[in-house]
Amino acid sequence: MKTVNMHDAKTNLSRLVEAALGGEPFVIARAGKPLVKVVALEPADLTGRRIGFLAGAKVPDDFDTMGEDQIETAFGGA
């Protein structure tokens, strides 16, 4: 596994991240001491995600002022 020092990691971060995404993880070191390992994350599984589940939902006309009195009272208003 490739080890790069902190300065080189800052200078070449974009290129190093692209390499990690391509399956080449790397270690960032300071003064020769390994600090962190950088690896690509697994892609998120979005198969169970529900898109448009609020379709048809109705928003009340007074939505911006709903519960105004209770909120004001709860936070020390008159």
In short:
By secondary structure, the protein is α+β, with helices and mostly antiparallel strands.
* Helix and strand pattern: EHHEEH
Task: Please give the number of β-strands.
Answer: 3
Mean pLDDT, to the nearest integer, reads: 88
Q: Which class best fits the helix and strand makeup? A: alpha+beta
Family: Belongs to the phD/YefM antitoxin family.
Function: Antitoxin component of a type II toxin-antitoxin (TA) system.
Pfam family, one: PhdYeFM_antitox
Protein name: Antitoxin
Provide a descriptive summary of the structure in words:
There is one protein chain. This protein has a domain at 2-38: YefM-like domain (YefM-like fold), CATH 3.40.1620. It has a three-stranded mixed β-sheet. It is of the alpha+beta class and 78 residues long. The chain starts with a strand and ends with a helix. The protein has helices spanning 6-11, 13-21, 68-74; strands at residues 2-5, 26-30, 33-38. It contains three helices and three strands, in the order E-H-H-E-E-H. The mean pLDDT is 88.
